[in-house]
């Protein structure tokens, strides 16, 4: 079944989100839904013009605008020139500033990780059901969050200990994909909704946050979502986005349930001169989402040091653990321990071997934690064979690359690369 929403100009308080940051738009949408207001966000100048035409000139409008990353600077002037007369403006430097302005005096809080969007989205029905408020926790917001947290707080996210230490409340400390599905099941029990929502984890429909319907988010594993959908007992689902139709049918098949799927794919305008009958796609906010990945870059044999160096790269957005079994000619050997690659990091693993071969065959398992349930492979083969090149050893040295500071996590990151294939010792001092 398809669902095409109808848009008509109405007179009600509307919150308009004017920011390029998904956290700002999420907080603004939750503020609107908490207070029973409508919510829209703008994506461009042309979009802002269309959205303004859907509002009444005397309608109360609350503009929530980023002072650093607005879509349109000083959107209040844009609307004033267009004849709108009942405007209120809330500006904030970032989501840390905004959440205190919108929710600083709430009675209870859901404390969320600002890295990815899926946990915040999945938590929305529970936040509204419990009459709570969202707060994003990172190194810069920790003290403000800590001052407001209580035993009634719900802390959601795989936070580093230095960030979450001292924050009271119930904890859900798994990885984002697991947390999001656990939150959907919890929302099923608490909201008693007969409807659920199935959507992608890389974007969210602000309107779906308002309905107190459990939200089941899909990254790439439909079987995990199907299992939770079956466990929920819900059989009617709103599916967000035309590109989700086939995925939703796959979830239905894997769940073994007869699901009633309502596809929300667009919005049509009915009473605006010049735009009557125009169909707009469902407006969604893009968010970062967790990905687990591992790539094999190369295998190089260095005869001077009798070393085979196999280089991997993590193209994903989560820290990845991996372990390899290798076959080099007649020689079979394995890693001595599990290795770790940070997001975007390249890791070279040296192995002491006397002779090389044309190819090396690897069985590499990887994942977020043990058991490592993913396999680096080509097509249906459980192994990966790559040619072995021959390199020339050089004197060992360390090169310092880019230095960055992650304010959200409170981490100073220094990119180091080793020039050479023998072990080098690095002494780091905090002086």
Folded structure, characterized:
The chain has 431 residues and is of the alpha/beta class. It has 2 domains: 285 residues, no CATH class; 102 residues, Immunoglobulin-like (Sandwich), CATH 2.60.40.10. 23% of the residues lie in helices and 34% in strands. Strands 1, 10, 12, 13, 14 and 15 form a 6-stranded mixed sheet that branches. Strands 19, 20, 21, 23, 24 and 25 form a 6-stranded antiparallel sheet that branches. The protein is elongated, with a radius of gyration of 26 Å. The N terminus is likely disordered.
Brief digest:
The chain is an alpha/beta fold and 431 residues long.
**What is the CA-based Rg, rounded?**
26 Å
Largest sheet, in brief, is: 6 strands, mixed
Number of domains: 2
Total strands: the figure is 28
Number of helices: 10
Q: What class do helices, strands and sheet pairing give?
A: alpha/beta
Poorly predicted spans: 1-10
Percent of residues in β-strands: 25-35%
Helix content: 10-25%
Termini Cα gap? 65 Å
Shape: elongated
Mean pLDDT: 89
Structural features:
single chain, 431 residues, 2 domains, 6-stranded mixed β-sheet, 23% helix
